[in-house]
Design brief:
This protein has about 210 residues and is of the alpha/beta class. The chain contains 6 helices and 9 strands, in the order ββααββββαβββααα. It is about 45% helix and about 20% strand. The longest helix has about 30 residues. Bound molecules: zinc ion.
Amino acid sequence: MLTVDEHGLTVSAPWRSSERRIVGVIREAEEWVLKKLDVWSAFPARSQSWVQGDKIRYLGRDLSLDLTADSIATLATLQDEDRLRISLADPGHQDSVKAAVVKWYRRHAQSNFTACIGEFAPRLDVPLPRLFLSSARTRWGSCNAKREVRLNWRLIQAAQPTIDYVVIHELAHLIEMNHSRRFWKLVASVCPHYREACAELNRMGLYYMDI
Ligand SMILES: [Zn+2]
């Protein structure tokens, strides 16, 4: 079994596996391993200080945090397209700043994803599914036969075309519950840029998830 994380590549094999067999497994998985190692080396770890001027991602661009003290209510508002103004009781308390950002992300994720579903469900000719925000650490979206679509709120950090792709991917699963050639044809019919979107998720996925 192969795992790739911030420590590099780890191979675990049953006791007494021959060296040749282990090398064989690594060879077979070479492409996957190189891709994973590449992702990890590109993004060692997200370092987020949650202080004044700290940068966060929103719809594929950088916003800088602008913190002010306000003892009455916690409020986050977007200013000038590149600044997120947060007023809260203690701007020096990093966990509270992070919590305010996450709450703001979730609120915008909900309205953004709802609008996406409203736009793309009719184009794929599927009835509107129910949307739930998810916090899964390993996936961007999922859906089930009850017509429930779950989308990770962390996706709101990605560029809009990438969000559109994940929404379209899940909506297409309401028609094709697999990753067959027919499924990808369906995705490409409304989302011709899907390969670039997959590339962004491969490149930035671990970073977006690390919040
Ligand atoms: Zn899928």
